[in-house]
């Protein structure tokens, strides 16, 4: 909808003028390939002066990226919603912490408002220690984890007598895979990895690693190095891909503002699903401008987003929309393999309506 300033008072006309300036400034900052996206913000977006004042009244909203400038849903779209002016269009002052800090702790404590996690399992493990987090979006029903192994490992059972590397922890879905394959874990030596170089697997320094399917295995494929990969679906296991979390108190007190944050980021996600190369170039340029270019080179980002965008598309739901049923399988896995004294019920951890209500007939309502 377009705001008609003729129907506004002095304050409203001032807002309309400011809104136009913001949109034009955002458009001017974009490369030509992205001007069409900015034009959408300028021509079609208008919120009332009252809604703008409401959104501005909360002050700065801080988003914490747990993995820098990675081209992942729930991360890429937040960075680019800011770059494209979509947050500005909804009068949201968004600050991004891309330092890889522990977003869960910052959001739970109220020092930040939003962060994205790799799967519902991560949310569940965090929720066991803090009840001040609420998941508002899940971006896919493919688990992002896989076990990639030296080519001599023909089945996970072959890991017995060998070594299995992991990064932060062995995820519940990886434990479920190993269990389904009949692996006797007492016969497997576990090694906590200190770097993310996947070539240690084909070079035989470790037999296999629990990794991120869109990252390390794709790097090995790009290098033409032989390896075998085992995915949860090979064992009839279904997981989830990337989850957006918000501080529960912030959500309760500022539900409409939280909805607009998600609306803007999902608008950017919608664009990035249709314009992969543009978005990869943009996020890679941001990484380079902020001294993280070596960690997030454009070729790696392109491989990552090629895989992860397919997970979003294949979810058979509007991007970000979720329901308790989407988490049931993973909830059972965390209950069995997560080693928690108490696991909260799904509806205690999830808000299933915030993002779903942003869509009508599968289409994101922009701006309303």
TrEMBL record:
- One Pfam family hit: NMT1
Q: Where is the signal peptide?
A: 1-41
* Pathway note: Cofactor biosynthesis; thiamine diphosphate biosynthesis
Please give a single GO biological process term from the UniProt record. Answer: thiamine biosynthetic process
Domain of life, source organism: Bacteria
> The SsuA/THI5-like domain covers which part of the protein?
78-276
Recorded hits in InterPro entries, A to Z, give: NMT1/THI5 (IPR027939), SsuA/THI5 (IPR015168)
**PANTHER family, A to Z:** 4-AMINO-5-HYDROXYMETHYL-2-METHYLPYRIMIDINE PHOSPHATE SYNTHASE THI11-RELATED
**Which family is this sequence assigned to?**
Belongs to the NMT1/THI5 family.
Primary role: Responsible for the formation of the pyrimidine heterocycle in the thiamine biosynthesis pathway. Catalyzes the formation of hydroxymethylpyrimidine phosphate (HMP-P) from histidine and pyridoxal phosphate (PLP). The protein uses PLP and the active site histidine to form HMP-P, generating an inactive enzyme. The enzyme can only undergo a single turnover, which suggests it is a suicide enzyme.
The record's note on quaternary structure and interaction partners says:
Homodimer.
Q: What is this protein called?
A: Thiamine pyrimidine synthase
